[in-house]
From TrEMBL:
Residues annotated as binding Ca(2+): 123, 192, 194, 226
Official protein name in the record: Fumarylacetoacetase
Keyword vocabulary terms for this entry: Calcium, Hydrolase, Magnesium, Metal-binding, Phenylalanine catabolism, Tyrosine catabolism
EC number annotated for this UniProt entry: 3.7.1.2
Organism: Gibberella intermedia (Bulb rot disease fungus)
Binding site for substrate: 233, 347
Sequence positions that bind Mg(2+): 226, 246, 250
Length: 429
């Protein structure tokens, strides 16, 4: 049983002001169920509600599900009422949180799940820096005009979205070689630092939704690592686009940080705050949106058990297009979006000018959201502290991403998304 006040370590990503939502189970109760993260603990929402936590009946019914879809589909004010009830209970020393020990679980005793049933996954490409660098390596002298006119994207694989902590096996694919193409393990395996947007209220088929109203359809955000096998990807892309090179796995952090939490942290900004730039200054009325989101994100690598090394740092607000414009563009053809659909922002890379906000001591090389950019396609190895060279990911490497939003005493976090690379499996030829 925890004692009042609730114990929250300094610099925890999950202070009382956050209250993210996720799905977990424990060894003594294997039933996947909804919870929230507070400090180093997970609160079992079903137990707290059954014990008297005051919530709307629709919330109680939605949280009986093994995913967050039903809860996310509720009206924003109804969803946020649960956050407020939890916060009030945490601040009340007579609440059930401090009277029962079954509803408060040590975080290391909880096994996390993908928090929503994902019907569709779409990955965008909205970083100008990323497009410029990758395009240069591919032989393009200029950024295509369509990048400046719309948020570019492709439909990915929802079936390979996995939760942080689940290992990733090096993929096989069709790869070119001196004696022709062969089916072999990828030798150019890479990560991509992104954020994911989960859809709440669905957008109906045939009813495009402008960017100015897109936030009504956003439940919250997670960290996202869209693993990429570059040798497979680059060979298969012409003329149709990415397929197996981007389908191996997409890792996400387990806790969905809500729009309301980000707004209270001061992370929801306007284009006036940021200065009109990029797609935020679009002349297309359907895509015009005054809102944007600021989240600082980073990627670290651990090789051979050595302490994590920072590889790159960026910010969600550095993208050419905002998450709300991505939602709007996705709906623009009338295809519709369902509750639980996941949208990846695309690789988060920053320009040398943008990273100045991280301070003068930040190494300007560490501004890329993937290895392909950091090592320029393998032509510029990155030196690790043990003096070894990093080019592509090796078996046994662990990649970890973090995200933080807000400033001062209003800082909240996303936790981490982390995974270890396992050797490729052997397949019969």
């Amino acid at each position: 049983m925890v004692q009042y006040p609730f114990p929250i370590p300094k610099r925890s990503p999950f202070p009382i002001s956050n209250i993210p939502f996720g799905i977990f189970h424990t060894e003594d109760d294997l039933d996947p169920r909804p919870g929230t993260a507070v400090g180093d603990h997970v609160l079992d929402l079903r137990i707290l509600i059954r014990g008297g936590l005051p919530v709307d009946e629709s919330v109680k019914e939605a949280l009986e599900s093994p995913s967050l879809n039903a809860f996310a589909a509720l009206a924003p004010n109804v969803r946020n009422s649960l956050r407020k009830a939890i916060q009030e209970a945490l601040r009340d020393e007579s609440s059930i949180i401090y009277r029962e020990d079954t509803g408060v679980i040590a975080a290391d005793q909880a096994t996390m799940h993908v928090p929503m049933k994902i019907g569709g996954f779409t990955d965008f490409m909205c970083s100008l820096e990323h497009v410029q660098t990758m395009g240069h390596m591919a032989g393009y002298s200029e950024v295509p005009q369509n990048f400046f006119d719309l948020p570019a994207a492709y439909n990915g694989r929802a079936s390979s979205v996995i939760v942080s902590g689940q290992n990733v096996t090096r993929p096989h694919g069709i790869i070119p070689g001196p004696d022709g193409a062969s089916y072999a393990p990828s030798q150019k395996f890479d990560f991509e630092l992104e954020m994911g947007v989960f859809i709440s209220n669905p957008i109906k088929y045939g009813e495009p939704t402008p960017a100015s109203r897109a936030r009504d359809h956003v439940f919250g955000f997670v960290l996202l690592n869209d693993w990429s096998a570059r040798d497979i990807q680059f060979y298969e892309m012409a003329p149709l686009g990415p397929f197996n090179g981007k389908a191996t796995a997409t890792s996400i952090s387990p806790w969905i940080v809500t729009l309301e939490a980000l707004e209270e942290a001061g992370a929801l900004l306007t284009t006036e705050d940021l200065g009109l730039r990029g797609g935020k200054n679009t002349a297309i009325p359907f895509l015009h949106c005054p809102d944007d989101v600021a989240v600082q994100v980073s990627t670290s690598l651990s090789r051979n058990g050595v302490t994590e090394v920072l590889l790159g740092k960026s910010d969600l607000k550095h993208l050419h297009w905002s998450p709300f414009q991505m939602v709007a563009h996705h709906s623009s053809s009338g295809c519709g979006l369902e509750t639980g659909d996941l949208l990846g922002t695309g690789t988060l890379s920053s320009s040398t000018e943008q990273i100045k906000e991280f301070g003068s001591d930040h190494n300007p090389i560490r501004r890329s959201g993937c290895l392909a950019e950091l090592v320029l396609g393998g032509t510029r190895p990155f030196n690790l502290p043990d003096e070894s060279e990093l080019v592509w990911l090796k078996d046994g490497d662990t990649v970890t991403m973090e995200g933080w939003a807000g400033s001062g005493d209003r800082v909240i976090g996303f936790g981490k998304v982390s995974a270890k690379i396992l050797p490729a499996k052997e397949f019969p030829c």
